[in-house]
Write a structure and sequence with these properties.
The complex is a heterodimer. Chain A is mostly helical. Helices cover about 40% and strands about 0% of the residues of chain A. In chain B, about 40% of the residues lie in helices and about 5% in strands. Chain B has 16 helices and 7 strands. In chain B, strands 1-2-3 form a 3-stranded antiparallel sheet, with no helix packed on it. Chain B has a two-stranded antiparallel sheet with strand order 4-5. Chain B is globular, with a radius of gyration of 23 Å. The chains are: A mainly alpha, B mainly alpha.
């Protein structure tokens, strides 16, 4: 059981329970009426919220083996390289983000229909793979290292930056065929998750110190800017705020 | 089915025999008397304690947590076995005005007889007439669940001697009729002081009338005419709006007051509500030498707690309550100049930030907007700092809130 799942339970319903109970309501209602109607005020409980627990950056890897983690770090370091604008995807915590997501609800596509039939489908029909994200990473990372061993006589993580870039470009274009997984599909999920980790709230492991938000000037988890909406072409100098807050929240020690 | 009707008829016959035998105090069967009695039962909010389930009105069973232990409000339907079926009007009157139950036992003052004692005889009669019309419910309630020694009812003799004065309402000849009507409602059946006046160590009403008190981990705010932390800054219409609809621009009724508005004051006549507002805002019920305390000086914006709190407020609160604390009327309470924000005790403020709160839904304002719980997101320090900021900004001024207070209430509420 992952931390994420336990947390969802402590907060009340898990998403699966919620979906299940909604479905039951719909089924129950369909026999007699086409719509649900509520009277009186909706039920309310103190402390009601589904709060996520921030990931612990220093904890052990939750899904990846240490070798897998090193490979993922070697990938995200090249997808988002350190430059004048920001630190690298590795230093921003993207691998930690992906690891924790794979260990949680996302990892086994708990919320998706994952039973057959599985057919190739057209590009417009989107992802039709029977593989869960956990399986895609496990198979993809192993196949990638197999490929590197065969062609470079080294593991991916031990290659230089430019070599890694070249291999990643070949994965993206489909010029490399991995053994156990479609190389384009593998590249796409890693790129997608890396971007998510880079821009997601820091509480999920990536975007450390709100580095990505500072880079693009995104002010973070605030709600209302009516007082600023008319102030065009002006640096409003907002310090970004995470779901967990920011430095100014604390009194000086 | 037949059998049940037979029993009912038999029961009715029994009741009317009893009624005949004590005809001197027979309950009125006139519609206007009964209807007036029903209105009085709403004003007194009998249902708050005596109705556990809407399916069985006034059949008792609501637990009352007191500092001394648990009491359970009894069944006051006319059921002969488990309710007041064999009581006479005089028995009822003794309970309401002296705290003496049928047979001479002492009621606990969780039953507000110390204020009901002010009720006029004709009102007691109408209330009694109404109670005769309620469906009798067979529902046994064990009222006294107090631990030793508080479970000894006779101890209430001593309590009464120290805390209770058996008086009738005496209108003040120097005051106009509406103020006197307000006094009768506030001091008697409305029993406002039961929550809003601080209790002494025995649970009797202490000094500093209407100056606010903590009950059930909520702060029943100051309802004196103090303009800073009482209701002196509200217009008469704003106070009436609060009682009638459950909220005005500063405040929504929450916690125990939500129950009061839901069951009681939203149904009071406008005349009665205006009388109450005039009486409370005139300060006529307070000591002759009462005057509002001088408002404290607001903490400086450079104060460390205020400064940290301002960042938290901007990030987490300003979206709804707006950066200048003016809120949105009807949806998000105005914090600037809000008396409960300026109140002596921050319990309610800490509570709604930690656990959230849903306002009362009334016929007039059915939306019942809710404040989300922020206890998962804000630490004890954060809550203390943001409340200290709110209590010392935009003209507000009140003591800082400490992280220890927040931690204590957090633990208490999570155990509830």
């Amino acid at each position: 059981m992952s931390k994420t799942r336990d947390t969802a339970k402590a907060g009340g319903l898990t998403r699966r329970q919620l979906l299940g109970s909604s479905a039951a309501l719909l089924v129950g209602a369909s026999g007699t009426a086409r719509a649900l109607s509520y009277t009186d005020t909706p039920e309310w409980q103190p402390f009601s919220n589904i709060a996520a627990t921030p990931v612990d950056d220093d904890a052990d890897w939750q899904f990846f083996t240490p070798d897998e983690a090193a490979t993922v770090e070697a990938i995200v370091e090249r997808l988002i390289p350190a430059d004048d604008l920001s630190v690298s995807g590795k230093d921003a915590g993207c691998a930690v983000f992906i690891d924790r997501q794979l260990a949680g609800l996302y990892g086994d596509y708990e919320r998706r229909y994952m039973h057959g039939p599985f057919q190739a489908g057209t590009p417009q029909q989107g992802d039709q793979s029977p593989l869960t994200p956990q399986q895609r990473y496990r198979l993809g990372l192993a196949s990638l290292d197999d490929h590197c061993r065969n062609t470079q006589d080294a593991l991916f993580k031990d290659l230089g930056g430019e070599q890694r870039d070249a291999i990643l470009a070949q994965l993206e274009s489909g010029d490399i065929a991995l053994d156990d997984i479609d190389s384009v599909a593998f590249f796409e999920i890693v790129l997608q998750n890396t971007m998510e980790g880079f821009f997601a709230d820091p509480m999920y492991g990536g975007n450390r110190d709100m580095v990505a938000w500072k880079m693009v000037g995104f002010p973070g988890a605030r709600y209302d800017y009516r007082d600023y909406i008319e102030r065009h072409n002006e640096d409003l100098a907002f310090e970004p705020v995470s779901i967990q807050g920011r430095g100014d929240w604390s009194t000086p020690a | 089915m037949t059998t049940r009707i037979g029993f009912t008829l038999l029961g009715l016959a029994g009741t009317s025999l009893v009624a005949l035998s004590s005809s001197a105090s027979a309950a009125s069967t006139e519609y206007q008397d009964i209807e007036h009695g029903r209105y009085l039962s709403v004003v007194g909010d009998c249902a708050a304690c005596h109705t556990e389930s809407d399916a069985q009105p006034l059949a008792g069973g609501v637990s009352l947590e007191t500092p001394f232990g648990t009491l359970m409000a009894p069944n006051i339907t006319p059921d002969a076995k488990t309710g007041l079926g064999d009581w006479t009007f005089d028995d009822f009157k003794a309970a309401m005005t002296e705290g003496i139950g049928k047979g001479g036992y002492h009621l606990y003052p969780a039953m507000p007889y110390p204020t009901y004692t002010l009720m006029r005889d004709e009102d007691l009669r109408d209330l009694w007439a109404y109670l005769q019309t309620v469906d009798p419910v067979d529902h046994e309630v064990d009222a006294n669940q107090l631990p030793f020694p508080f479970n000894i009812r006779l101890a209430m003799m001593g309590w009464n001697w120290l805390n209770f004065e058996d008086t009738d309402f005496a209108p003040d000849p120097d005051q106009p009729d509406d103020i006197n009507r307000g006094a009768y409602l506030v001091e008697g059946l409305g029993h406002c002081g039961t929550c809003h006046t601080p209790r002494n160590f025995m649970g009797g009403e202490g000094g500093d009338k209407f100056s606010g008190a903590v009950i059930d981990n909520w702060y029943a705010p100051d309802i004196t005419p103090d303009a800073h932390k009482g209701i002196g800054g509200w217009s008469e219409d704003e106070l009436v709006e609060y009682l009638k609809t459950g909220g005005n621009r500063y405040d929504f009724a929450s916690g125990p007051m939500a129950d009061e508005v839901r069951h009681s004051s939203q149904y009071w006549t406008d005349e009665d509500l205006h009388a109450v507002a005039r009486y409370l805002q005139s300060g006529a019920g307070l000591a002759d030498d009462w005057q509002a305390e001088a408002a404290p000086a607001a903490l400086d914006a450079e104060n460390a707690q205020v400064s940290a709190g301002s960042a938290i407020y901007f990030d987490r609160c300003a979206g709804c309550h707006t950066p200048d604390g003016s809120g949105e009327t009807g949806m998000f309470p105005q914090l600037a100049g809000s008396p409960v924000v300026n109140g002596d005790d921050p319990t309610s403020l800490i509570r709604v930030v930690l656990a959230g709160s849903r306002a009362v839904a009334t016929d007039a304002k059915p939306t019942a907007p809710a404040m989300p719980a922020l206890g998962w997101n804000l630490s004890d320090d954060d809550v203390a700092n943001v409340l200290t900021f709110v209590r010392n900004s935009w003209g507000n001024a009140a003591d800082a809130v400490s992280a220890e207070e927040v931690a204590e209430l957090r633990a208490t509420l999570q155990d509830e």
